[in-house]
Amino acid sequence: MCMSLLQYCKVHYIPGWDCHGLPIELKVLQSLDQDARNGLTPIKLRAKSAKFAKATVKAQMASFKRFGVWADWDHPYLTLDPEYEAAQIEVFGQMVFKRYIYRRRKPVHWSPSSRTALAEAELEYPEVHVSKIMYAIFKLLTTPTKDGLLDEFPKLSLAIWTTTPWTIPANAAVALNSKLQYAIVEVQSPSPDVTSSSEDGKKRIGSVLKGSKIPFFIVALDLLSTLESKWNVKLAVMKTVFGSDLENCRYAHPINGEECPVVIGGDYITTESGTGLVHTAPGHGQDDYFIGSVVMETGWFSDIAWSQFWSSEM
């Protein structure tokens, strides 16, 4: 419209207002005391929100008129008008008949304070929040690789890295890059500086790197030197394989011991950071959800793993 006006074209401007959404409901709730909120039903909240929206539209319309904005002020469109809602339902029906609409499970963010679902655009993260990273190992249970590629390593684990340790309980798979080269490594000569305390500023190391029976790990070959520096250990390469060789292996879930699959992920799995093996929780994150949806169609996930996936998004 603005471009048309700049080109000296006559424009029939019909103003409109989006009268639905969480911001309006929050404004209404903020104007009520606690007793009024407790007795508020969804129907009453909608009625109060509609009344608030119409009053706000009236005030904004008066301001625009004072600014000298030319528009069809007598016939604006409001998304709460029944005619507008009916038109939306008609368009949605056409999309259904054309098979543009499909039903599928997807994680939905929930606001405990507002007691409603949130769109991703409505999420705000505090700038001061820091999520600590964590390295962990998941013990392999079965290794159905070609030509018994991993049979000589009975105690073999997957080394993962995550910036969201709180999603570990929702883990349902470990994803890797089929084109990357992975190394089976043995931890040698752990440094005496390795400590389990973080009081003096040193990194906290778990019991795995300090034990006498350290298992073999699988990590991305290109990240070997980086991990040696971060873990303060020497890693000896025992064998190298490609990510495609590890597909379909199964490991024990770190919390409940359930069998989970090793799957092929996307291009987001790189050697820029981490271990080259990505902890995957389909209830958290777009890439994880996509991988989980693909794997679901193959039937690789156990019922318990999927129940964790779905419960995390309800």
From TrEMBL:
Q: Where are the transmembrane segments?
A: none
List, alphabetically, the Pfam families matched: tRNA-synt_1
Domain (Aminoacyl-tRNA synthetase class Ia): give its ranges. Answer: 9-248
Q: Which Gene3D superfamilies match?
A: HUPs, Valyl/Leucyl/Isoleucyl-tRNA synthetase, editing domain
| Entry's Gene Ontology molecular function annotations | aminoacyl-tRNA deacylase activity; aminoacyl-tRNA ligase activity; ATP binding; metal ion binding
Residue ranges that the Swiss-Prot or TrEMBL entry lists as coiled coil: none
InterPro entries given in the database record? aa-tRNA-synth_Ia, Ile-tRNA_ligase, Rossmann-like_a/b/a_fold, Val/Leu/Ile-tRNA-synth_edit
Enumerate the UniProt keywords alphabetically: Aminoacyl-tRNA synthetase, ATP-binding, Ligase, Metal-binding, Nucleotide-binding, Protein biosynthesis, Zinc
Give an example GO biological process.
tRNA aminoacylation for protein translation
Kindly indicate whether the keyword Ligase belongs to this entry. Answer: yes
PANTHER family tied to this protein? ISOLEUCINE--TRNA LIGASE, MITOCHONDRIAL (PTHR42765:SF1), SOLEUCYL-TRNA SYNTHETASE (PTHR42765)
Listed name of the protein: Aminoacyl-tRNA synthetase class Ia domain-containing protein
